[in-house]
Amino acid sequence: MLWWIGNILLLVVALVAVALLSRLLGAIERIRKAADEILAGGVAAIGDLDTTPDLLAQTDTTVAEVADGAVRYAGSVAKLLPSD
């Protein structure tokens, strides 16, 4: 009789362990899928960054041109304003 109770308990514990393991494996697969999507997005973002040095050089040129224009404008305005 005691063997039957032990066997039933062992069966219940085994079923619970299989159910918990199944849920754990499902969560692992969802995490793996999300990690793969993140990796794919990161690789795509790296492709967009290939032109960054050229864009920064263009920005530097534009900033220098704007600074020159601002200095010329300030000099012209200074000539127009009365000096006190």
The total count of helices amounts to 2
Low-confidence sequence ranges:
none
Can you count the beta strands?
0
Backbone shape: rod-shaped
Q: How far is it from the N-terminal to the C-terminal residue, by CA?
A: 113 Å
Count of the domains: 1
Strand residue content: under 5%
Helix content: over 70%
Mean pLDDT: 90
Largest sheet: none
**Structural class by helix and strand composition:** mainly alpha
For the CA atoms, what is the radius of gyration? 35 Å
Helix-strand sequence: HH
3D structure, described in words:
The protein is mostly helical and 84 residues long. The chain has one domain (2-80). It has helices spanning 2-48, 52-80. The model has no long low-confidence stretch (mean pLDDT 90).
Task: Summarize this structure briefly.
With about 80 residues, the protein is mainly α. The protein contains two helices and no strands.
List the defining traits of the structure above:
84 residues, mainly alpha, 2 helices, 90% helix, 0% strand
Secondary structure layout plus pairing:
Layout: H1 2-48, H2 52-80
